[in-house]
Write a structure and sequence with these properties.
Length: about 160
Amino acid sequence: MNVIYLGNPTLRKKAKRVEKFDEELKKFIEELTKVMYRDDGVGLAAPQVDESIRVFVYDDGNGLNVVINPEILKRSENKVKMEEGCLSVPGIYADVFRAQSVEVKYFDIEGKEHHKELSDYEARIFQHEFDHLEGVLFIDYLSTAKKAILRSRINKIKKGEVL
Ligand code: ZN
């Protein structure tokens, strides 16, 4: 299992909901988790390994979280800026504004439902990974000027020249 890069159409698709919480899903999530830690990511969404389903894993420093069929029920009006990167967009880091806190709902690997309020770093990771399930990448939020500065690097990633 490997991470795919910007330019691969899977990253732009809306991912499908998980219907079956079975052994196959568990195996997939185990692999996804291994890849996240191996590649030093704080989060990794299924579309990033070319699997268009609504699953992501993350570790904000307080242990692993497995998130299936998530929903963001509420986003705080207060937005904060933080520098982000992404394993699928290697070598690019940029400030992104996101809600400081979010109210979320999701299922874990056993199919148990969780309802939580997340804030700060964890809220940021959750929003970034959730975007992957919608086909959205953090670079989509950058200003035209910032994108222009990064254009040659972005084009290189798209052509597969930067790994
Ligand atoms: Zn990402």
